[in-house]
Amino acid sequence: MSATSIHITALDGIVNVNSLFTLAVFIGLAWNPTDPNNSLVDPIQHPGCTPGPKVAENLITFHVYSFSCFLFSSLVALGLKQVVRLVRGGAHHHHNHEDRVLWPAFDLAHINRTALRVGYVVSAAGSVCGSVFLMLALVNVVQIKLGMLGCAGGSRHGYGAVVPLFILVPSGLLIYVCTVFYAFTR
């Protein structure tokens, strides 16, 4: 597999993953957190566990931040992908049926590897930030559905949902960052 196709495949992967996360963000934004039927918390049994409007505001805010980060990351990756494809194409000339040169194709010269690496890191950073904001939005979803995490009545189910989230997502992000760092240094 050539270096160019590896770059294209890596950039496609970033865009595909960001697209899935962006879909999750849109689904989250379509959900109405202020609908009282969406909560599993009984305000009579657990009066201190009902989330306030600030939790719903944070939910929307983190979704918007997450969407912005994923969109930024995808646009950077798509831009890099186009540059790699244009450079890979090389200088060609377009001919008509009489084999006369109509116009030369534009060539962007050689790929600046430093700029390409910085672009990868910027795109990866956008994906990481988007993932962190999506995780924070999910914490707010848990609090809306299962009750505030620090309430007196206790939200065992809330902690049961949040603890794996705080273990698995950062673990996955650490692996992703290490892989990007490894690719960056090669």
UniProtKB/TrEMBL annotation:
The chain crosses the membrane at residues 12-31, 60-80, 118-139, 159-184. The keyword Transmembrane helix applies. Keywords: Membrane, Transmembrane, Transmembrane helix. This is Maternal effect embryo arrest 60. The lineage of its organism: Eukaryota, Viridiplantae, Streptophyta, Embryophyta, Tracheophyta.
